[in-house]
Write a structure and sequence with these properties.
The structure is a homotetramer of 159-residue chains. With 159 residues, chain A is α+β, with helices and mostly antiparallel strands. Chain A has one domain: Thiol Ester Dehydrase, Chain A, CATH 3.10.129. Chain A has four helices and five strands, in the order βααββββαα. A five-stranded antiparallel β-sheet of chain A has the order 1-3-4-5-2. In chain A, a hairpin with a 4-residue loop joins β4 and β5. The longest helix of chain A has 16 residues. Chain A is elongated. Chains A and B meet through α1 and β2 of A and α1 and β2 of B. β2 of chain C pairs antiparallel with β2 of chain D, so a sheet runs across the interface.
Chain lengths: 159, 159, 159, 159
């Protein structure tokens, strides 16, 4: 899990966090997920494996505000040997309210920009972290009008 | 249409534009769309109508690079009296290649944060700009694995 | 003290942190300094006291890189009843090397945008944190070609 | 000269532009200055010459607001064969009011990170752009009540 505190720089004149900044927090979430399994993204890049984003999506439920402490909860799943998906929930730490949810999809590329398989230790990590849902093929989707969203929401609130 | 030149600040160490910055360009696209119809977003806010983002999505096809000139092509559609959707294509100006596409959905809120109808001149603008596709219910979707994407892509390349 | 880890979003295509982002870290430094004394900047604003920046300066010695852990060391000093200065050092946590130093000067304004005195508990905090140097009128200057810089640098390296 | 329109993303909850973003506009100013002389910074980097910032400073007089059109007026001067300085003024286009001024100092480095002389056509450009106006003492200096400013200004002006 990743804890961030909202920076003044991240707010806009609406008095809340500017929407694009949630994608920066998503980056922190997936970075910490990889790091937690002993495989920092920095090391991955040094080994000639980059993970550019090919798709990104976020749904916004409640605004995030300056100085709020937020938790970014991230899971990962292999979509194919050369493609990975991360799902994120942004939860306000003080009261466990879900502010936003989303996902990103990444291609695995080698140093020359060609598709390559993820290193085994990363693939295994992703299977593990995505757990039963991924195993059954129901990788976590975006929150919102898709099935499963209300379940996930309940899960968050229950904690 | 909106023309931007990629800023150094927008690149990352992969040597391309950081993915969250496309959403900033989307903001410029919808702002110019509104302005072009005589209704700047600044004026909307002053009249007590804000349009916070409730959903955002982008698909990335080709990287954008430092100093590239890009065109943001934006269309808008009313989803309901209190909800609007904008669709975006980011096209490299030098060779008309589509780099990315996406959309945002916005709630229309009054100064107190309650849902409100968009001003008429904005609603009419959106119907006009989204044109026949919107009229027939096929609002432009994100590029990618959905039907219609290849059509839109051809349209872009043909120009 | 403030600990940050460099975000991918903060790098640029030179492979290092984009220079403007150091000023965002400065913001985190002064925010934590105030919070540490029981006076968060968020509360200050709610009490009708804002501290807009009137001057900002940074000198860059060594680049900061993706995933580096950095410490922002911040001191504050009252320049007048309505003006405050913060000085910052950005130090790489792994080897205590000074990467950059700088300062910001802020006006204290009331809710109407007029100059106002800082709340007493903040003024007292600033005198305390800036210590003897501030008391004697030698507020910490930017690192660089001014006297005192090499002293401060030694202080950092000694720790 | 560089014209920008303030982005929503650049504002903060104080309702004005966040202070670090002025340094992004400075980047646009120096980039356009180089480009105007037929030497884009992108080409410079490709030729193995980068210009990392070693010092940056800004003084803020009036806030910049969302949707404002601003002009960034930039001049450049060689401080030594391997060091260059740019001075900036940020002016609101609608009424020509100076919002902020500042400068950056840059080292010229080769692809290996060692100091190198600037290409001749760039050096000549810098001399030229600081040129006659500088001779007459009207180049844009940093605004502000700091001692030393007038000295620095003279230095710039002399070259």
């Amino acid at each position: 899990m990743t804890r961030v505190r909202v920076r003044y720089a991240e707010t806009d004149q609406m008095g809340v966090v500017y929407y694009a900044n949630f994608f920066v927090w998503f980056e922190l979430g997936r970075t910490d997920l990889l790091r937690g399994a002993g495989s920092s993204y920095r090391d991955l890049e040094r080994q000639g494996c980059s993970l550019p984003v090919v798709e990104a999506r976020c749904e916004y439920r409640q605004p995030a505000r300056y100085d709020d402490e937020l938790d970014i909860r991230t899971t990962g799943a292999l979509l194919s040997p050369v493609r990975v998906r991360f799902d994120y929930q942004v939860v306000r730490a003080s009261d466990d309210v879900l502010l936003a949810g989303g996902h990103t999809v990444h291609a695995a590329l080698d140093a020359g920009g060609r598709p390559r398989r993820l290193p085994d230790h990363v693939s295994q990590l992703l299977v593990r972290t995505s757990g039963p849902a991924a195993a059954s093929g129901e990788t976590a989707g975006p929150i919102g009008p898709d099935e499963g969203a209300s379940d996930r929401l309940r899960t968050v609130r229950r904690r």
